[in-house]
């Protein structure tokens, strides 16, 4: 039995395509694996704070030396990291914003990439034996040729940062061309939905 961490990061609600696609994956997955557990986290509509001076001071201090205000500074980070530990599969929806990830998602990343919790001082990832599916949504397309690929700072960034904390089994499903007219959008959604259905059988 698996425990899935389902996370959305679009600031949009019912109009969000990434939310619709992660929901579609998790719903289909649960039909095939009815005993699996799901934890849900929404950093799009309920953003976590950016890290601040207290957070940085606390994360680089020994836990037994932490004053109460520094313990508080790490509270949400501890909660988010605990969610990563208890789950063994992650299903994340991440829109492309300005060729990379939305600020809300970057704030989440800054909270979970933490020395001695998710990586060691000599840069070894600690979050191992996990799988992540990242469903991205994009207005344009970045998979056609070398010049469009160069503009994609989202997939390489996500691969690097999750790899850094030890999550190296990464699958991407990109729903592209979502703002390139009804026909292109419909075609792309069908391709993404087909990939979602086939992955629920093989992941
Ligand atoms: C602030 C903002 C920035 C965006 N930047 C890009 C971009 O750099 N490249 C792109 O292809 N699409 C971009 N888009 C389009 C979104 O990726 C697209 O609308 C996607 O569907 C958003 O995900 P969501 O539907 O889950 O909210 C941007 C949209 C917004 C609102």
SSE inventory with pairings:
Elements (H helix, E strand, L loop, with lengths): L2 E6 L8 H16 L4 E6 L10 H7 L8 H6 L1 H12 L2 E7 L7 H10 L18 E7 L8 H4 L4 H11 L4 E7 L6 H21 L1
Parallel strand pairs: 1-2, 1-3, 3-4, 4-5
Helix pairs in contact: 1-8
Flavin mononucleotide (FMN) binds next to helix 1.
Write up this protein:
This protein has helices at 17-32, 53-59, 68-73, 75-86, 103-112, 146-149, 154-164, 182-202; strands at residues 3-8, 37-42, 89-95, 131-137, 169-175. With 203 residues, it is of the alpha/beta class. Strand 1 (3-8), helix 1 and strand 2 form a beta-alpha-beta unit. The protein contains eight helices and five strands. It has one domain: Flavodoxin domain (Rossmann fold). The radius of gyration is 18 Å and the shape is globular. Bound molecules: flavin mononucleotide (FMN). Flavin mononucleotide binds next to helix 1.
